[in-house]
């Protein structure tokens, strides 16, 4: 059975890019008589707002989508802790106290996920008085599992290249898990068979595939769709307040826009004025 999901974080309103992703994931499941799941990724500290999670449900219903809701991330903290302890005990994680400013000062190279951490704290004794994250030692991890690959429904079989992202954070200083660890464990527990998400997360998939190999988790397929771009040629994103600049689903809903009609337009590639699709 095909099982897909839409997993937004309630730290900002949804925009048309989210709607496009949700419609694709929903339709792929429905096409094969499968299941479309909603999972709220709500472990972003005080930025996670319950009222936004409720707005997300209203947005999806307004679009005419149907779904099954699974437990939110905040109910799954024990599983994240267990997995992180497993990796730590195997010597695959190391503590890191570096701040973003300190990393930038080292002039690291820019990789698929932004600044690539240069491994400053690897093998070093860290200051116990400073906030500490746990990073994945990618080289040790690859030495343990060897080459891994994953199947993308557009690009075909891909050899994972987690080195491109560097030693990513697995346990954040301010949260019980990073996106990488939480989403990988959640997709396994929820039985996701096709991970449907934007092309911008293509590089992160190599990290997630490595974590699946390390933790003995099932391996889904991936479908990385193109991204919706605004009139400035920038992708719609919460960080650019796209959910509040005329592209927000709640905005459009309150303005009386026809939700199912909008979903059908997104399916056809008939995007609102100023919106274009950057192909995958």
Automatic annotation (TrEMBL):
Domain Glutamyl/glutaminyl-tRNA synthetase class Ib catalytic: 3-239
Family statement: Belongs to the class-I aminoacyl-tRNA synthetase family.
A single GO molecular function term of this UniProt record: ATP binding
Cross-referenced Pfam families: tRNA-synt_1c
Keyword Transmembrane: no
GO cellular component: cytosol
Gene, per the UniProt record: gluQRS
Keyword terms: Aminoacyl-tRNA synthetase, ATP-binding, Ligase, Metal-binding, Nucleotide-binding, Protein biosynthesis, Zinc
GO biological process, one term: glutamyl-tRNA aminoacylation
Top-rank taxon, per record: Bacteria
InterPro entries per UniProt: aa-tRNA-synth_I_CS (IPR001412), Glu/Gln-tRNA-synth (IPR000924), Glu/Gln-tRNA-synth_Ib_cat-dom (IPR020058), GluQ/Sye (IPR049940), Rossmann-like_a/b/a_fold (IPR014729)
Transmembrane intervals: none
Protein's name in the database: tRNA glutamyl-Q(34) synthetase GluQRS
């Amino acid at each position: 059975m095909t099982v897909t999901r839409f997993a937004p974080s309630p730290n900002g309103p949804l925009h048309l890019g989210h709607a496009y992703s949700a419609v694709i994931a929903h339709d792929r499941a429905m096409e094969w008589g499968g299941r479309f799941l909603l999972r709220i990724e709500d472990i972003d500290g005080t930025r996670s707002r319950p009222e936004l999670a409720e707005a997300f449900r209203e947005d999806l219903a307004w679009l005419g989508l149907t779904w099954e809701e699974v437990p939110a991330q905040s109910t799954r903290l024990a599983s994240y802790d267990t997995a992180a302890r497993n990796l730590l005990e195997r010597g695959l994680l190391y503590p890191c106290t570096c701040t973003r400013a300190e990393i930038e000062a080292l002039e690291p190279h820019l990789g698929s996920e932004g600044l690539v951490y240069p491994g400053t704290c690897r093998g070093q004794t860290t200051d116990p008085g400073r906030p500490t994250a746990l990073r994945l030692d990618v080289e040790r991890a690859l030495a343990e599992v060897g080459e891994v690959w994953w199947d993308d429904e557009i690009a075909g079989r891909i050899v994972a290249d987690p080195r491109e992202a560097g030693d990513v954070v697995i346990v954040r200083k301010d949260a019980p898990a990073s996106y990488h660890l939480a989403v990988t464990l959640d997709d396994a527990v929820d039985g996701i068979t096709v991970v449907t998400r934007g092309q911008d997360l293509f590089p992160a998939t190599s990290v997630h595939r490595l974590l699946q190999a390390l933790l003995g988790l099932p391996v889904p397929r991936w479908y990385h769709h193109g991204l919706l771009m605004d009139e400035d040629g920038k992708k719609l994103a919460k960080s650019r307040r796209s959910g509040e600049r005329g592209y927000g689903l709640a905005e459009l809903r309150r303005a009386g826009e026809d939700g199912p009609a909008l979903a059908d337009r997104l399916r056809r590639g008939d995007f609102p004025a100023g919106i274009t699709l950057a192909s995958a």
